[in-house]
Amino acid sequence: MTSAGGPGPAAEVLRLLQARGETLAVAESLTGGLVAAELTAVPGASRVFRGSVTAYATELKHEVLGVDGTLLAERGAVDAEVALQMAAGVRKVMGADWGIATTGVAGPDPQDGQAVGTVFVAFDGPDATADRPISTGGGPGSALRSEGKVAALRLNGERSDIRMESVRSVLTLLLERLSGERAGNGRAQDTEQNGGN
Asked: Are 128 and 147 in contact (CB under 8 A)?
């Protein structure tokens, strides 16, 4: 996913993380390994990329990534807090400085009461508290407490379009955090920016 103006977001994320001496891990649901594939397509990715978990089944989000089981039972897998806990969980499991995550509905049918195109992308990292502290697991006994950022997206298009835009969106979210500036993303509508939650 390189752009006409230079390297794509995967290459830029890896470059910035390498310059900082930090590592990255990925938790994926609807993207099914596409984020990891995009990162590992970049030469030298192994200097930064620790690994990924494709937790496509809801129970794996709890069993492998530590997402709160009550949260999953009450809200389903397509939820902002689930995305944050996935990012925090993969960061912990892989021993990485940063974790990013995708969860959502690529279609063709709605899931967990969420419409096709509903996507949540998130990151968790060492200085993520500078963005917005979010307690995602309830009390001190909860599975995970995450401090990071999540973007709620409403994406249009076919299943493959939604999945690929989710890849671009999660990489861009982290890139914006690492670089401190907004990068353009034409297809995605960040509902937090547009008055959503």
From this structure: yes
